[in-house]
Amino acid sequence: MAKRRRLTLATRMLILVFLPLWALSGASIGIGTYYMAEQQTRKLKDDIKLIARAIRVPIGEAIDKGDLTTVQRTLDAVFSIGQVYGASVYNKNGERIAAAGIARHDQEDNPLAEKMLKGGEDGDAYQHQAGRRVYSHFVPVNDGGAQLPIMIEVTRRASDFSTSVDRLAYWAWGSWGLVGFITLIIVLLGYRQAAGREVAQLTRVMGDVGRGQLKSRAKVRGATELAGIGEALNQMLDEIEAAQAAIEAHQAHEISLNQRLERQERMAALGRLVSGIAHELGAPLNVIDGRARRLAKLDDDPKGARELAAIRGQVARLTRIVRQLLDFSRSGVQWQTVTLQALVANALESVGYEQQDTAPIYAIDIPESLKVCVDPARLELALVNILRNATQAAHSKVGVSARAIPETSQWELDIWDDGDGIDSQLEAEQLLEPFFTTKPKGEGTGLGLAIVQNVVHDHGGHVTLRPSREGGLHVSLLFPEENPS
Hints:
Elements: H1 9-64, H2 68-79, E1 86-90, E2 96-101, H3 111-119, E3 123-129, E4 132-143, E5 146-157, H4 158-210, H5 224-298, H6 302-329, E6 336-339, H7 340-354, E7 361-365, E8 371-374, H8 376-393, E9 397-405, E10 410-417, H9 428-431, H10 448-458, E11 462-467, E12 473-480
Parallel strand pairs: 7-9
Antiparallel strand pairs: 1-2, 1-5, 3-4, 4-5, 6-8, 9-10, 10-12, 11-12
Helix pairs in contact: 1-2, 1-4, 4-5, 5-6, 7-8, 8-10
């Protein structure tokens, strides 16, 4: 289907406003020109009539005296007037007895004069004299009140009338065209100033929006109607942008929920698997440790004792891993109000037993009065894992601080070290994933921070990992003040 061609607003204004007004003014010019032409023609005829009436008395007196010289001189004087083209005097038979101007070149008698003379009244007519079209006015001659059988004819070129009318029409229609052109320019400029720029701007904004630029806005200016359209367009774009932002936020929330659900499902499945493996490994490890302990009592050989001690050390290491696996798969929180400073001290003591070399300096900043509602066993396990990592990574110093945040009803525990930190290409989420470790193969299980994440999550808290100001890793644990259950 062919696209329907639509007229622009400027074209519609010209068709519906300018052209009717211009046509109306043209009709007015035509009517006015017609009446002015009529008045001009009447004036020219009246001038000839006055001249003819002015000379009929002296010509009548001269004819009554038989003085044709005076008659001719009078006609010559009339012809000298610029408006007169010719003058004649006729007898009762229509014969020309005196003439001036173009009438001298016309040798024929004028039957029209005889006809006018029989009527005895003034008359006029268009006729030809000497091959020229003229306008003639006839007046009878009076002598002292008595009418003589004499007729005077005063002529004027017919072209004088048409020339005058044509000149009047030329100026009238020329002025009409000029005024129409100026009016057209004024209308177009006025449209551009009043509406054209604003309409173009609104169209441009709509085009930008159609191309996906929802930040584009119309400038509210111009006439009240156009400004109202601009405001309505901007309001609509604001609402569209707000709705789109709400949709994107809802989609992001759904994605986050799906990711959390997927992670929880994965963690639950992993927890069931880990729990089963840990239980299966626990009994054999206890048996190995017990028999190694009995063999150590029965064998006095120092070399055998060292080998048995090494076996028991590896068993202890495996037992610790099994305990971590069990703690990782464990769910549920046993709430209890404890002093945070004592809980941290217990965790530091547990970590201290594992130190074989020189331990770093611990900078502790925890208020003695700070009490928290937590699961002491599980939170201590989380602290042991964080402190173990910090102690192993630190060059010389590990910091532990805690504070209550009354305005948010939360409390925060921060642990940092002055070690080398982590690779900048790694993301915090990777460090919190189960079995992900940055330690060399055989030195870490990758469960430490995963256990921390689970414990803190079960407490309704949040774990944040970031580089510390001392160069190492800064672990921040944020907990709600009240029991989230």
